[in-house]
């Protein structure tokens, strides 16, 4: 699942925490305009599997989706 980190109402951190509280293990990748290492760490601490910095190229997006899709498939 891709989540913008700074969504209105419920940001990506809270969304991910809620997903994890529900016991869901689906991959969550945050997308943010903030490229600082602290932002990446905050994403990981909230339970996200990874964090991409905008602008995200189609190649990076495809690589990321392929990586987590393969992990989901192998976990079945």
Strand arrangement in the largest pleated sheet = 1-2-3
**First and last CA, distance:** 17 Å
Quaternary organisation of the protein chains? single chain
How large a portion of the residues is in β-strands, by DSSP E? 5-15%
Order of helices and strands: EHEHEH
Largest sheet, described in full? 3 strands, parallel
Overview of the molecule:
The protein is of the alpha/beta class. The chain has three helices and three strands; from the N terminus they run E-H-E-H-E-H. Strands 1-2-3 form a three-stranded parallel beta sheet, with helices on one face. The chain is globular, with a radius of gyration of 12 Å.
List the helices and strands and how they pair.
Layout: E1 2-4, H1 12-21, E2 29-32, H2 37-45, E3 50-53, H3 58-74
Parallel strand pairs: 1-2, 2-3
